[in-house]
Design goal:
2 copies of one chain form a homodimer. Chain A has 12 helices and 14 strands. Chain A is α+β, with helices and mostly antiparallel strands and 409 residues long. The longest helix of chain A has 21 residues. At the A-B interface, α9, α10 and α12 of A face α9, α10 and α12 of B.
């Protein structure tokens, strides 16, 4: 995927981060919200020197964190200047004070940056149902040192149980001009096990029309972050935000611009790469699973089938055990509600076809080897139409259960 | 539950089975479909001496086993005489021969019983994508000895990876007459790990009008078997069937009958008891989890919230670890799409209230003890209305992953 995209004019920036695009700065401190430990940063700011066009997508969980609710409001403005994010406590279900605390975080960051509080978006990730230690946040925000190299510290500050920070940047050229897109995300891990909360923040120095940015981001997120699953449990805090500050110069990219296609391609590349990083680092996971559904009657059914396979405990455990038990794939696509024509359907484990209208004889050892890879491909043609979709997940291991059943509160 | 229901005129028949109601016989043999082992029965017949009113419900998985497809057709007739069931191979996704084999199983049982093939329903459970060994089934069916004590053998014959057979019977009186309802079900286990396929077969000697039987069964199954989850993966072979043969005499029970309410109550009692037996025996499970949702805006939302909690890996692992991490309950009810008013919501772990519009201080050791029971009660009032629902599941253990990732094919 990375190489294919790179061949289409997208260049991976080695050591890149969310502050690789021009005009972005970031920084982080350890405020004492997380238990002191390996990753001693838990409060960060990512800011643009100038107002940036903003597009944002949030969790569809009906129980939303207060940071999500405040950011939703602030993202309705045409531009934004900064994100302030803490890890360790997610500020969900804290009663009336949750809302006040989320707003105060924006105000504290806004005062530091000398911008309006409504220009700041906020994220909180970690345990549900504990109040934010606002004294620590009030003391911490002024201590954050912002700089163009701060993207990596910011990536560490938003981690909860991730095993490593996730950040990257790519460059691309369009219309004779060079642009950069950076991104930072967090997934799940093992320091303070709680729910899987997903953040993905994307920055770019491209000037982008807000409407086009929102549509392009919705499409890119829809095919990337919205197609990963670690355990099927949707967080109360999922947040994806893109900021486009125009520091690269040139006219704003819109639907008809010469640079539109290149921008969309690069944005999709970054979102997909971040999504795969999150899935691969799923709690306890040892493998990345890529599920390709073809031959679906509709796009919606293709997506549902792909996501259901990635979320199926029986598929995830079979992959963990290198068990070429393809019947579980059949069960999962059928459970999704997608139409399946069993007489036309085809199933592959990696490159080994195991079903074509009926079970095929296959070399079980070879099929098992297909599952023994670090990246496992599962492919099903539903035989019901022409729509397709790809989703990513990870295997389920005994470690997943250990991580999430350890007594931690 | 059992005692409450028992006080309303329902009497548990000790050692009861699906052949406790008058006029039912059953039997089973080891045909060699399952690997020889601990439970050496794998092919059984349950039959009524006289035509029985029939109601049946099948999996909504779009990939259906051929036994399901054949039984769906046969259940459209007003009466049925028998079920023939094998375990070890589920006869799903076997191409054109799957259908022929399912029909031949009905014909073989029909020939033995001297009834029409369309009067026989068929069930197959086990591995997907392997053909039925029809030579063994042709040799096995004539060897089955049917008798009024055969219910327990039949219960053993339909097990795949269940750790124990699941069967029962209750008696109740209505309109001066005594009636019996028997049942047999299978869930999941550890002999030949594959997908969770659910069977529940109910027998009664009551004479019941077919339309009333279908409605009463739909309601009873909807609140019992359709409210359990072991791993969220819907089988391709789920089948629930009730046969009412009228051997107890008296007029057929219909919507307006004096016996209608007592019959519905007893049917619901049996279905609920069987559902809880299945959930408790979930693969690797150590605990039964009962989830009660109250204060939902609609019945549909109450059911969705209850089922989502029972299927959430994060809730299931927290219960396994006795971790009073109630935030995961909040996440799960929100993920279901049910409306939640956080300012009005209440959450209990067992009898310990942990949230009431905001987090409450609670004794963590006591709350942990509530999760340390064999039957764990989780209760959430969504604060959004008056609807309620109850669902059952089980904890997720490392053993669940071991069972399902062992290389078995």
């Amino acid at each position: 995927m990375a190489k294919a995209a790179a061949s289409r004019g997208i260049e991976i920036i080695e050591g890149g981060s969310a502050t690789s695009p021009r005009g972005f700065v970031a920084g982080a401190v350890y405020a004492g919200i997380k238990a002191a430990g390996r990753s001693k940063l838990d409060l960060g700011i990512l800011a643009s020197d100038q107002p940036a066009a903003v597009a944002a997508m949030f969790t569809r969980n009906t129980v939303k964190g207060d940071a999500v609710l405040v950011s939703q409001e602030h993202a309705r403005n045409s531009t934004a200047r900064a994100l302030v994010v803490n890890a360790g406590i997610s500020n969900v279900a804290n009663g009336a004070r949750g809302r006040r605390d989320a707003e105060e975080m924006c105000m504290l960051a806004a005062a530091k940056l000398r911008v309006g509080a409504a220009d700041v978006l906020v994220g909180s990730t970690g345990v549900i149902g504990r109040p934010l230690p606002m004294d620590k946040i009030r003391a911490g925000i002024p201590r954050i040192k912002l700089g163009p190299d701060g993207g990596h510290d910011f990536a560490r500050a938003i981690m909860t149980t991730d095993t490593h920070p996730k950040t990257m940047a790519v460059g691309f050229r369009a219309g004779g001009r060079g642009y950069t897109i950076g991104a930072v995300a967090k997934g799940v891990g093992m320091i303070h096990p709680d729910m899987a909360t997903m953040f993905c923040f994307v920055t770019t120095d491209a000037a982008v029309e807000r409407r086009f940015l929102r549509r392009a981001f919705r499409v890119a997120v829809g095919d990337s972050l919205n197609m990963i699953s670690v355990d099927g449990d949707t967080s109360t805090s999922d947040t994806a935000i893109v900021l486009a500050n125009g520091a690269a110069g040139g006219p704003a990219i819109g639907a008809g611009s010469p640079a539109a296609a290149a921008f969309e391609r690069a944005l999709r590349h970054v979102c997909t790469a971040m999504a795969k990083m999150l899935a691969r680092d799923g709690e306890g996971a040892e493998k990345l699973i890529e599920v390709r559904i073809e031959g679906a009657a509709t796009d919606k059914e293709a997506r549902a089938a792909a996501r259901t396979v990635t979320a199926s405990p029986l598929v995830k455990t079979a992959v963990h055990g290198n068990d070429p038990n393809w019947g579980r794939l059949m069960m999962a696509v059928g459970r999704s509600g997608a139409r399946v024509d069993l007489a036309q359907a085809r199933v592959w484990l990696g490159n080994t076809m195991v079903y074509r209208g009926k079970p095929l004889p296959f070399d079980e050892a070879a099929a098992s080897d297909e599952l023994r890879r670090e990246e496992v491909l599962l492919r099903v043609n539903l035989g019901a139409g022409r729509a397709s979709a790809t989703a990513w997940g990870c295997d389920m291991t005994p470690e997943y259960v250990h991580i999430n059943s350890d007594y931690t509160t």
